[in-house]
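Format is sequence with structure; example below:
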Amino acid sequence: MITYIVLLPQDPDTPALRLSVGEDGRVLARERLRAGDTAAQPAAAAQAQTVLVVPGTQAPALWLELPARNPVQALAAARALVAERLAGSGETLHIAIAAAVGDDAPRPVVAVERALMTHWLERAAALGITVDALVPDHLALPAPEDDGVVVVADGDERIVRGPRLAFRSEAALAALVLEGRPQQVIETVPQAEALLASGARQPAIDLLQYDFARTPAQPRGARAWRRAAVLAAVLALSPLLLWGAEALRYTLAARALEAQAAAKVDAALPGRAPTQPPLAAARAALRQAQARDGFAHAASALFAAVPRIEGARLERLSYGEDGALRATLSHAQADELDVLRDALAGAGLALQPAGTRRADGRLHSELDILPEPAP
């Protein structure tokens, strides 16, 4: 059966690319899609799967250890860990979690703004396609079998995939992160398309989860009427009972989650004081662990925060022996640094401007980014 892989470009005015991929992973056909094209959806698409591959610049991936048995517990744990590592409001972030491959094995978790998810789906609808799965391009790439990384050149940006590593960023920043690691660089368009097509047929993660999960097909005919009649009767006879049972179920689930979290924290942190809440103990331990790999944490938070400032770009990035991430930011207005400061504070980082100069009509600010002191 054919699988359609649709590569959505960064620029909404640029046509999307649809690849028709056979069961053996070969690209059988390629075509450009434009908004408003009434012929965009082929007749065979009703039976085939369509995977939308989106730019992963603002969809960073983290590898986290999460509970494998309960999706509700996994989501709660993921939200807590993502809040510690990435800038952004938890209320506006959509969290997607890859399927578990083992009881305690880390798995990819992607955090992306809900508004951006809606924007991607609206663009797909304008192209006349029905999306069955949605995946960021860095996780659409197949994971390498060794310790090396695959790097796909896409203009001035690089798409990177490695063991427990996946991101899309500017070429200079990707080079800093990957310095010293063996790399397989893909620069030809056909080879890049073939890799994305091969990996997207069975993506490492599908972002259409939770609030964005696909609506299952509705039953038709007499069966649908019988089901509707039964549900209406149940709701009419016992609304209070249903609401009470639902509230009790959530209460018991929340208590079980709290108890399980406390037990896991006690097992991982045997020195926790009885008066110290489990979440506070876990956060304190996490801050200590992050201090050992400060560059990765600070760089990830900075990459996620810079797109919040329109037109801003990073010109230089370095990491000092004192644990400070030093960067040069090109931007338009001085008060834009407050946006960056607030975003980094959400990731437990402090922004310290070290000087600003004006050149070519723009501001060039030297910034020091340090972990905030523990309370």
